[in-house]
């Protein structure tokens, strides 16, 4: 038997950058609120230094059913802004 150390493994999310903040059940579905955050990458436009900016409005991502109940992931994704060219990019993950 293997112990599951992280709630994200329990629901099948493989990305280590996703942190669950709240899980609650409504009459119709289970809702998971989480944030996607990681260190700032280099700018894809000018390759300059980017800084953490803020979070986007949460994305609504349907997941596989848990115990026969529909599950919804509300994921806030980090935004990054380049110090040089001022372009803004959004954190990416393979599940979205």
Automatic annotation (TrEMBL):
Residues 40-85 form the Transposase IS204/IS1001/IS1096/IS1165 zinc-finger domain. This is Transposase IS1167. Pfam families: Zn_ribbon_ISL3. InterPro entries: Transpos_ISL3, Transposase_Znf.
């Amino acid at each position: 038997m293997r112990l599951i150390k992280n709630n994200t493994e329990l629901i099948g999310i493989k990305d280590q950058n996703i942190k669950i903040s709240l899980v609650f059940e409504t009459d119709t579905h289970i809702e998971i609120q989480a944030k996607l955050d990681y260190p700032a990458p280099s700018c894809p436009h000018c390759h300059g230094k980017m800084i953490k900016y803020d979070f986007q409005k949460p994305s609504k991502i349907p997941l596989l059913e848990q115990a026969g109940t529909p599950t919804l992931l509300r994921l806030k994704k980090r935004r990054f802004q380049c110090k040089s060219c001022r372009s803004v990019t959004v954190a990416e993950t393979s599940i979205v």
